[in-house]
Design goal:
With 302 residues, this protein is of the alpha/beta class. The protein contains 14 helices and six strands. The structure holds adenosine-5'-diphosphate (ADP) and magnesium ion.
Amino acid sequence: MGFVIATVNMKGGVGKTTLTINLATCLANNHGKRVLVVDLDAQISATLSLMPPHEFAKVRREKRTLGQLIYKEIKPNSKSKVTIQDVIKPYTCNVEGLDLLPGDIDLYDEYLVSEMLHKKALNEGGRTFSQVWNRFEELLIRSILDPILDDYDFIVLDCAPGYNLLTRSGIVASDFYLLPARPEPLSLVGIQLLERRISKLRESHDSEQILNLRLLGIVFILSGSPLMGRYYKQVMQRVTQDFSAAQLFENRIPMDVNVAKAFDSFMPVVLANPGTAGAKAFMKLTEEFLQKVDNFPPSQPA
Ligand SMILES: Nc1ncnc2c1ncn2[C@@H]1O[C@H](COP(=O)(O)OP(=O)(O)O)[C@@H](O)[C@H]1O
Ligand SMILES: [Mg+2]
């Protein structure tokens, strides 16, 4: 069975999506891995980075997005027959082994979820609303992915910023999480906040899966400004005090306008412009990623 990996940071604009799509593409294209990208963010950046808008419009019209799969979990009695296999788009960007589970601008309705769980808590008795909620959160993404878990070496979840239901459910369903961050003091505070939230998740979700969740590493996405040079060194000194070497990726991603421009060609920079500094950095990072996954001690049985 492969690994589920969540790309998370409560901050937006730190490079989560860019890391997700380039890592996933390199794993498939350069290493022959079977990879699925799951877009858990209603801003659908990962989806639109991997498929042209007209194609997305079509899958949305046909209700072949993650939105439909979530709807089925929220309304188990719905008549929808759509399966995850119907929704997954293979050969993304013409790369063998690179699949996409397209996201949606409407992923779920908080009100519907609360109503459904409230009824469930009343019907089941014995369990409090928060226990019912936690159980739902624990199973939502895991149940959606369950039928295809064995089909992939890696399933990478592109999480939304903040800390919404899908981010939490995605983290709980994962074996590892990847943390892209900027080398700035506020970003470091953000890392610690996320770590604290994840330990809370471990307390509230007493499942075997979350006991196995581990930080694969923090990936620094550098700032492009040369003025940041000295300051950057100071911040990185703090980083090495606060985190162990095993928690950090040695490879860092430079700012490179080609990374952002690749969006216009509906494919990641590692395909659109593989000779550029940004693309090369993602390729080296992918090698380090594979080494880290290989070298991780097996998770402890619960
Ligand atoms: N290494 C990089 N070089 C240049 N631009 C980048 C780089 N990484 C990300 N960006 C750009 O920064 C913006 C935010 O990145 P994104 O991956 O969408 O962040 P997030 O998913 O955390 O919100 C995007 O416009 C993206 O193209
Ligand atoms: Mg994003």
